[in-house]
Amino acid sequence: MTVGAAKALGQFDGFVDDDAVGGLRIIDEFVNYPQTPYRVIINEAIELTKGFGGTDGHKYVNGVLDKLAGKLRPVEVEAKRAARKA
Questions:
Q1: What DSSP assignment string belongs to 2-47?
Q2: To which H or E segment does residue 51 belong?
Q3: Mean pLDDT for the chain?
Q4: Do 69 and 30 meet the contact criterion of CB atoms below 8 Å apart?
Q5: Backbone conformation region of residue 22, classed left if phi is above 0, alpha if psi is from -120 to 50, else beta
Q6: Where in the sequence is the domain holding 45, given as residue range(s)?
Q7: What is the pLDDT of residues 1-33, one digit of tens each?
Q8: At 86, is the pLDDT very low, low, confident or very high (cuts 50, 70, 90)?
C-alpha cells in the first residue's frame, strides 16, 4: 500500500466500521499491486474471513471479490479463466 493511501485509510480507523476499512485495503491491493495475483488477494481475504467472520462468510467474500477482480483486473481474470478452459 502506498504511504499516502495508508495514511488516508488510517484516517478512517475508529470512524467507520473495521470491515469497511478492510475492504478499502483489499481494493487498494487490487489496484496498486498488480504484481500480486488476484487469486492471492482473494485467498488472503477468505482466510481472514474464516478466522473472524461468520460460518459461511468466506463464500460470500469469495463471490464478491471474484466479481470485483473481474472489474478491476479484467485482463488477468480472463487470462486465468481461459487457461482453465484449455
A1: -HHHHHHHHTTBTTB-HHHHHHHHHHHHHHH-TTS-HHHHHHHHHH
A2: helix 38-52
A3: 81
A4: yes
A5: alpha
A6: 3-85
A7: 444 555 555 554 555 455 666 777 888 898 889
A8: confident
Q: Rounded to an integer, what distance in angstroms lies between the CA atom of residue 62 and that of residue 53?
A: 13
Kindly report the CATH number assigned to the domain that includes residue 62: 1.10.940.10
What whole-number distance in Å separates Cα of residue 9 and Cα of residue 24?
8
* Listed residue (36, 29, 35) closest to 68, CA to CA: 29
pLDDT of residue 1: 46
**What is the number of structural domains in the chain?**
1
CB atoms within 10 A of CB 41: 20
Query: How far from the centroid of its chain's Cα atoms is residue 80's Cα?
Result: 17
Residue 18 main-chain phi, psi, to 5 deg? -60, -35
Locate 1 and state its grid cell.
500500500
